[in-house]
Amino acid sequence: MHYQKIPKAGLILSALVLLSFTVSCFFSGHRVDYNSEIKPIFNKNCISCHGGVKRQSGFSLLFRSEAMAKNKSGKPAIISGDPDNSELIKRLTLKDPEERMPYKHAPLSEKEITTLKTWIKQGAVWGEHWAYTSVVETPIPNNKRGPFGIFGNPSWINNDIDQFIYQKIKAAGMSPSDEADKAMLLRRVSLDLTGMPASEKINDAFLNSKDKNAYEHLVDTLIASPHFGERWAAMWMDLARYADTKGYERDDSRSIWRYRDWLIQAFNEDKPYDRFLIEQLAGDLLPNPTDAQYIATAFHRNTMTNDEGGTDNEEFRTAAVIDRVNATWEGLMGTSFACVQCHSHPYDPFRHDEYYQFMAFFNNTRDEDTYDDYPLLREFHDNDSLKFIAFKDWVKKNAPEREKELIQFVRTQQPAINSIAADQLVNSALMDTKWLVFRNKAVARLKDVDLTNKTELMYRYISWKPGGEWQIHLDNPNGTIIGSVKVDETKNRWKINNIPLIPTTGVHHLFFTFNNPKIKTQEETGMQFDWFNFTNPFPGKGLPDYDIALKNFNELLEPSFVTVTPIMMDNPKELFRPTQVFERGNWLVKGKKVEPNTPASLGGLPANAPKNRLGMAMWLTDKKNPLVSRTIVNRIWEQFFGVGIAETLEDMGTQGIAPTHRELLDWLAFQLMNEYHWDLKKLMKEIVMSATYRQDSKWNKEAIEKDPYNKLYARGPRVRLSAEQVRDQALVLSGLMSEKMYGPGVMPFQPEGIWNSPWNGSYWKLSDSTDQYRRAVYTYWKRSAPYPSMISFDETSREVCTARRIRTNTPLQALTTLNDSVFLEAAQHFAWRIKLVVASDKSKQIEKGYEIALHQPISDAKKKAFEKLYDTALVQFKADRKKLIATTGPDKLKQQPETAALIIVAEAMMNTDEFITKN
Amino acid sequence: MSKENNRIIQEANKQFLEQVTRRHFFQECVTGLGAMALGSVLGGCNWLGSKDGSNSMLNTNPLMAHAPHFAGKAKSVIYIHMAGAPSQLELFDYKPELAKLDGQDCPQSLLEGKKFAFIRGVPKMMGPFATFKQRGQCGAWISDHLPHLATVADELSFLKAVQTDQFNHGPAQLLMHTGTPRLGRPSIGSWVTYGLGSENNNLPGFVVLTSGGKNPDAGKSVWGNGFLPSVYQGVQCRSEGDPVLFIKDPEGMSRDLRKASIDAINEANRATYEDFKDPEIVSRIAQYEMAYRMQIEVPEVMNINNEPAYIHEMYGTKPGEACFANNVLLARKLVEKGVRFVQLFDWGWDSHGTEENLAIDYGFVNKCRATDKPVTALLLDLKQRGLLDETLIVWGGEFGRTPMAENRDGKKNPFKGRDHHTEAFTIWMAGGGIKKGYSFGETDEIGYSAISGKVTSFDIQATILNQLGFDHEKLVYPFQGRSFRLTDVHGRVINEIVA
Q: In the 3-class helix/strand/coil scheme, how is chain B assigned residue by residue?
């Protein structure tokens, strides 16, 4: 049933009204709107030569101050209030093609010129683009029903979202669709909220319930399910560019899965979104950060590390820092900031310098593209965690003045100077640009070390031969020796050692020398370093239990097993990095120095915010920030409807696609901050409770004619499942899915020969039985060779932040679900599951299979198609025992032709559009 | 099954036409909502900004053949990338002066302000380890390492002064293939497929074949789709195992049964379409049909067993093995079948001299031997089939190698080797409307610097696109509020080598 049919006459009438409105705009007191009327003219015709990139004749239209300023001719192009004397207007109407603008392009239309004139006459007021103005409370439309709208809201409307949607549907002369039936709704909302079909128990409870609030109960159950966090973490992992490897050529493993688990927990706990962002961006800078807050900062440690031999670590550190800036803007603020790297933004109000001011927030992190991804948070296990507790207690009691420093060192081995900082190398080298190595008679320099109050040097090293001597000289290779050690071999293992230093004050260059007469050839390497830490001897000598504490300290520095996670941590002040503008984006050409700051057009840091990453995170989550709430609301909407209110999730700027329902977007953004207090579960519930979401997704004739892309939401969403959902659904239907949560990435079946990184011996090792059947979110993700079946379904390689997956529909997807053994195995188990309920009757089995997946009876046409397939398969399997066994597997009890035929049918069902699509 | 499907497709198309006239679909597609639903059914949109985009609308295949900006001379490209970067000094860039300097310290003037991947301190100069002769009518210098290629010198156009600014493999390969040393941009094959579609509906438009035991250093991103829809990414075909992942029916499935199963799937999908009228379902029906056809055609084209003996002899192919020669023969078969872009990567050319297989006087020579015959055969075979004129062949690495011997970490390497060199290296092109027997660009007398005819990866990309009929400045894709192109803000067609 559809609500109101507007007769054709109504359409014509509304068209006339629209036309007369348009006409009147230009001849009456209409005030020209910069954003909707002027900016599009500029963007289309002018700004590529007179904007952020080029400023021909010194003229730019990007900022009002620039446009009103004198340009090369010495005159301003726009004189406010005086269009006829404004050069801008004159140039548009000249006859000489050399003078007339746009240069070498078609002239502007009369209408456009009139609009520009009116606008200048009215004062040439610059407007701010909607997405760059703070979110303000938006009034909710109040729709009426009945003749002359004398009654209350139309009965279709469930909540405030629907008011916005209904208004536009009605304005277009259309009607919304009815609520989808229970079966469709159940599958849709389960897939949307938990990323997979719900359990039989949940399904039955909902389908059998007569309660009018049954749907709301279902929603509450799903939102409270632990699977909720898994589904939404998967979405976030595209933004975080989460992967289990470091990327680039070598693409070795990285242990960062604790961050993925943090995400799952954060979504399940419903961590408020502002908190969620602050912890990821600056958890390490919060007072007394917890482990979880440190792990959250791995968000920006998912940047790639280049281990290719001979790469410049500084270059790839810079690339990582830039990536953090770009991901923060694209992923969290829906703004393409990357182009400001090289020049001012061509269309949007961001200046070149502002990119680097923002980069300065990120530029002081401790990471330096080292092989081990330092700094790491180290988590102890078993006996080691007991040692750690004992150690913590002892330090707190016996050396409180060094408590913070020592605990931090045990947990992170920071602050340390990475050995790749060494220079002035003689008979020494930065091996593979990863570690400092000494040959015989080696000299190397470590510059600018602050030795004040430091009387001990701790270092991590390997020594290949006994008999070496390492000496530390002050200021030059022959300078005063302040430390010296005889080096024994470490049997090919990393060791941590410490030596006393002669007390010295001030900042010095240190020169290392190394000699080992046992090294006979010039090529042979004697010693290799990872890092240096200038510190003081372990405190509390003579105090009770000193020996145990020291032993614990040393053992905790080198435990046999420790879980590490790369984290953010800022440089200590002696290692502070100034930030400079990169001229035209070239990191080697450094321009003026800049201080950390946010772009002027989006308002400064909040008053109480420090000028560091934490302050930047506070600015992002401040209610005045116009982008953050809009971006997340838009993204979550996209997850439910398949397309954002503003479709270009990655760009809400002036070049992005304009939102279909800007008021709704703003209203939701305002609600999220002020009513839901950043509670995403509340936001999601509001969306799925709306009549808009609950509509039937069938296309009616009206939809086909008037709104094929469903921009008005007069029908429910119908979207192909995501890569993760395709896998998870197969596992749930087959009953194979492991409920296990968390832990290192797992390796389900994948064909041979996918992993072939050069200089990397690691290989895909099929996980043990349960781990093979974990949800997609736990699949080990190798950037240079990602899991192939998920890549076919538009999962991204996660090398950089991906704000939006573009869905495709390809034959490779069909081949994957038809032939990948993972899906075959799922089909087998799905068939057995059906057989458990219906032992023999093929029609009933087909009905059952369909019902398990789609919760509703199968249509006759579909049943007939599958019966026919069943019969064909049965004939084959009766005749060919080899094929039969290949299909059913080795279990003799299952080797009947009927079972094999059912497997073939189950496989076909799982490949139908209805199964692959959220209806 | 097809008759019924055609009816549905026609119905969807008709519906679509009605919308187009009313809806200004062109402004919205690709990044617009069109990409979501109808875009993938109806094959895209006004993708090149051409005046007449409408005729390209009605197809169920996003890879349908498109016309380029202008009539290009080449219909397809075979890009042979020697991953690791072969030494130009042992193959094409003949430097007798360098031989005279062999063993001497490299002059400071060549080292000042320069950065190398592994050379530290003062390395020694190293003379070419190869014998050179002038070949063919054109008199091109080609060393004895490539005796077969020497016989077809008159087909080739050399670019002897190619430059890059990336001296590590991964970034340099990315720059060569995606126009940026960082990740995230589409590869040249993806751009071409986006621009041209495929001439064969049953094969991917962009096929990648790798040999040498490893993938290229930059991983699959060198054939990735970047921000283009994933339908344009390179499909890696393998000469061992399944030629395309998941192309083979499971063991228990006969071809007949597979056909029956796809019939059942599509029958059910038709019923779903009647119910929902979502055109995306029509697309799925078409994709399942195409998958079925690919299952037949891909193994056929990837099977070299049926090639005549003289072809195997000519290429030096070994059926059943994963090797470069097989890939080269496959490349010919694929372009014959209408595949637009065949990308070959052969790994193992990184002749540092750190081990025997990477020695310029051993491993490198073997790599030359293993590839010389098949590459030459490809030229001759395409020529005898009349396909060379419309197939552009590109051969090269991601950078060149130093005229100095590598001294890794400041000490002598155990074998003869050269470090990565960015300032001048050689790439050649042939066929596809490129001049025959020509050489462009020169290096100085020791092959260190380019002195004339300098070209960059962007120029090579612009030239490849030009040969296919594209203006590289106009083959764009709107992304993040900006029109992106392969050559970014660079690139010049190397008209000097265009016939």
A: CHHHHHHHHHHHHHHHHHHHHHHCHHHHCCCCHHHHCHHHHHCCCCCCCCCCCHHHCCCCCCCCCCCCCCCCCCCEEEEEEEECCCCHHHCCCCCHHHHHHCCCECCHHHHCCCCCCCECCCCEECCCCCCEEEECCCCEEEECCCHHHHCCHHHEEEEEEEECCCCCHHHHHHHHHHCCCCCCCCCHHHHHHHHHCCCCCCCCCEEEEEECCCCCCCHHHHHCCCCCCHHHCCEECCCCCCCCCCCCCCCCCCHHHHHHHHHHHHHHHHHHHHHHCCHHHHHHHHHHHHHHHHHHHHHHHCCCCCCCHHHHHHHCCCCCCCCHHHHHHHHHHHHHCCCCEEEEEEECCCCCCCCHHHCCCCHHHHHHHHHHHHHHHHHHHHHHCCCHHHEEEEEECCCEEEEEECCECCCCCCCCCEEEECCCEEEEEECCCECCCEEECEECCCCCCEEECCEEHHHHHHHHHHHCCCCCCCCEEEECCEEEECCCCCCCCCHHHEC
A709 and B295: CB-CB below 8 Å? no
Across the A/B interface, how many CB contacts are shorter than 8 Å?
A: 303
CA distance A757 to chain B (A): 6
Q: A28-37, A728-737, B216-225: which has the minimum mean pLDDT?
A: A28-37
Q: How does pLDDT run across B207-257, given as a tens digit for each residue?
A: 999 998 877 887 788 998 888 877 788 888 876 678 888 999 999 999 999
Over residues A267-284, the pLDDT tens digits come to 999 999 999 999 999 999
Task: State whether residue B114 sits within 8 Å of chain A by CB.
Answer: no
pLDDT band at A266 (very low <50, low <70, confident <90, very high): very high
Please check whether residues B314 and B384 belong to one and the same domain: yes
- A905 neighbourhood in chain B, CB within 8 Å: 264
Inform me whether the C-beta atom of residue A625 falls under 8 Å from chain B C-beta atoms. no
Cβ contacts (< 8 Å) between A720 and chain B: which residues?
Answer: 280
B231 touches chain A (CB under 8 A): yes
Q: Do B118 and A811 touch (CB under 8 A)?
A: no
Chain A: closest CA distance from residue B396 (Å) = 19
Residue B275: list chain A partners with CB under 8 A: 698, 859
- Which value does ipTM take for this structure? 0.88
For chain B, say whether A213 makes contact (Cβ under 8 Å). Answer: no
Q: Which of B64, B168, B249, B408 best probes binding to A when mutated, by most A CB atoms within 10 angstroms?
A: B168
Task: Mark yes or no for CB contact A873/B257 under 8 Å.
Answer: yes
Min CA distance, B479 vs chain A (Å)? 9
Q: Residue A55: is its pLDDT beyond 80?
A: no
Q: Do B96 and B208 share a domain, yes or no?
A: yes
Q: What is the structure's pLDDT at B154?
A: 97
Poorest-confidence range of A698-707, B69-78, B359-368?
A698-707
pTM of the model: 0.85
pLDDT in tens, A314-358: 999 999 999 999 999 999 999 988 878 887 777 788 889 999 999
Q: How many domains does chain B have?
A: 2
Q: Which residues of B touch A883 (CB under 8 A)?
A: 251-254
Task: For residue A915, give the chain B residue with the closest CA.
Answer: B269
In a domain, B32, yes or no: yes
Evaluate whether residue B234 is within a structural domain. yes
Residue B297 lies in a domain: no
The parent domain of residue B20 ranges over 3-59
B-facing residues of A in 249-268 (CB < 8 A) are 249, 251
CATH of the domain at B160: 3.40.720.10
